[in-house]
Design brief:
19 helices, mainly alpha, single chain, Growth Hormone, Chain: A, 80% helix
Length: 388
C-alpha cells in the first residue's frame, strides 16, 4: 500500500507540474511561436476545463472499475498530450495538448483519495489528502526554476519530449503496482443526482469553486507575465518568484492537516485560511506595482493560505455515503478545477481588455479573483461543520 501511495503521489507531482509550467514557459513561447499571455490563459483554461469535465466519468470509473486501470490508462493520454505540445507550431496544437494532458491528469489525485476513503479511517482523510497534495506540489517547484534551467539547456521542445517519456513510464508503473480496494455494492444506493440533492454539500461546492482558482491561476500562469510586464523581471527572477509561491503552497498543504486537529473544526479552518488569502489578493489589487518583493510575498500568501483544497475535500467527504465516495470526491473536484479553468479564461479576457496598461490590467485581474473568494466565503458561512 505504501508503494502504491508513493507512485500515485509521483503521478500527482506530474499533474501539478502540468498545471503550472506555462507561467515559466510563457516568455519563451511568446518569443518562439508568438503566443501571447491571453492565448496561454485560454490554453491553461482548457487544461482545467478538460480536467474538470473528466471528473464525472472518472468518479464512475473509480467506483465501478477501480483506480488501477482508471489512473494508469488516462496517464498514458497525458503522455500523448506532452508529445503534441512538444511538436506544437501554434495556439491550436497547444490547446489540444493541454486538453489531452488535462484529461490524462484528471484521475490521479482522486484515485489516491478514493483509496484513502476506502482503506483508511475517516479521521485520517484530511491529513493524508493534505500530505499527497503537499508532496505533489513539488511539481509546482519543478515547474519554476528547474524548468527554467531545463528549457535553457535543451529548449522547450526537448523538455516536453522528456516529460512525455517520464509520464508514460509512470503510467506503466501504476498499471503494475496499484491494487484496487474491494468494491462496494452500488446498485440502488444512489447516483450523482443523489449527491447534488444533498443540501449539506451545496455550500462546500461553492467554496470549492472559489478556494482553488486564485492560487492555481496565479501560480499556473499569471505570476510569470505579471513579473515580466510590471517589474521587467527576467527568466531567472520569474523562476525565483514562482519557486517561492510553489514552496508556500507546499507548506500550506502540510499546515492544514495539523491545524484541523488543533482547531477541531474544518469549517472555520477553511474559512479563516481563505479569508487570509483574500487579504493578500486585495493587497495585490491595491498595490500591483509597488515592489516585486512585496508582490512575491503576497503571491506566496495567496499560495499558503489558499492551500485549503484538501481540507475542503475532507469537509465534503465526511458527508458522502460509502458507495458514492468515488463520484463524490470527483464531483467536489469538478467544482474546484472547473472554476479554476473558467477563471483562467475570464482573467484572460480581463487582461486583453486593457492593452498597454499592465498595472491596471493586473489590478483588475486580482480584483476578479477577490470577488470570487468573497462570494465563496459568504455562501460557506451556511455550511455545517463536520470533523469525523
Amino acid at each position: 500500500m505504501r508503494l502504491t501511495i508513493a507512485m500515485l503521489t509521483l503521478a500527482y507531482v506530474l499533474s501539478q507540474f502540468y498545471r503550472a509550467f506555462l507561467a515559466v514557459m510563457a516568455p519563451t513561447l511568446a518569443q518562439d511561436l508568438g503566443v501571447l499571455p491571453q492565448v496561454l490563459a485560454q490554453a491553461s483554461g482548457w487544461w482545467f476545463l478538460a480536467f474538470a469535465l473528466a471528473q464525472l466519468p472518472v468518479g464512475w470509473a473509480l467506483d465501478r472499475i477501480g483506480p488501477r486501470i482508471t489512473v494508469a490508462g488516462l496517464m498514458a493520454v497525458a503522455a500523448v498530450g506532452a508529445v503534441v505540445f512538444a511538436r506544437a507550431t501554434g495556439p491550436g496544437q497547444i490547446n489540444l495538448a493541454m486538453v489531452l494532458i488535462g484529461i490524462g491528469c484528471s484521475p490521479v489525485l482522486m484515485g489516491a483519495y478514493f483509496i484513502f476513503a476506502r482503506e483508511f479511517p475517516a479521521r485520517q482523510f484530511g491529513t493524508l489528502a493534505g500530505m499527497v497534495i503537499g508532496v505533489g506540489s513539488l511539481g509546482n517547484l519543478a515547474a519554476s526554476a528547474p524548468l527554467t534551467w531545463a528549457v535553457g539547456l535543451m529548449g522547450w521542445r526537448g523538455a516536453m519530449w522528456g516529460l512525455a517519456g517520464v509520464t508514460l513510464t509512470v503510467a506503466l508503473v501504476l498499471a503494475v503496482l496499484v491494487r484496487d480496494p474491494a468494491r462496494v455494492q452500488t446498485q440502488g444506493q444512489g447516483t450523482i443526482w443523489t449527491l447534488l440533492g444533498m443540501r449539506r454539500l451545496w455550500p462546500i461546492f461553492v467554496l470549492m469553486a472559489a478556494c482553488y482558482a486564485p492560487a492555481a491561476g496565479l501560480r499556473g500562469l499569471w505570476a510569470g507575465p505579471y513579473m515580466a510586464e510590471v517589474f521587467a523581471a527576467d527568466a531567472a527572477r520569474i523562476g525565483l518568484v514562482t519557486l517561492i509561491m510553489g514552496l508556500a503552497m507546499v507548506a500550506g498543504n502540510f499546515a492544514y492537516g495539523p491545524l484541523e486537529k488543533r482547531l477541531h473544526s474544518r469549517k472555520w479552518l477553511n474559512f479563516g485560511g481563505n479569508a487570509l488569502s483574500l487579504t493578500c489578493l486585495l493587497a495585490l489589487m491595491v498595490l500591483p506595482g509597488q515592489s516585486w518583493i512585496l508582490s512575491a510575498a503576497l503571491l506566496a500568501g495567496v499560495g499558503f493560505f489558499g492551500a485549503s483544497f484538501p481540507m475542503v475535500i475532507a469537509h465534503g467527504r465526511a458527508f458522502l455515503p460509502p458507495a458514492l465516495v468515488g463520484r463524490g470526491v470527483t464531483l467536489l473536484n469538478l467544482f474546484g478545477i472547473g472554476a479554476a479553468g473558467l477563471m483562467q479564461m475570464a482573467t484572460g479576457q480581463v487582461y486583453a481588455a486593457l492593452p498597454g496598461q499592465p498595472q491596471t490590467a493586473y489590478a483588475a485581474l486580482f480584483a476578479a479573483y477577490a470577488v470570487l473568494v468573497i462570494a465563496g466565503l459568504t455562501v460557506y458561512l451556511w455550511s455545517q461543520d463536520r470533523t469525523d
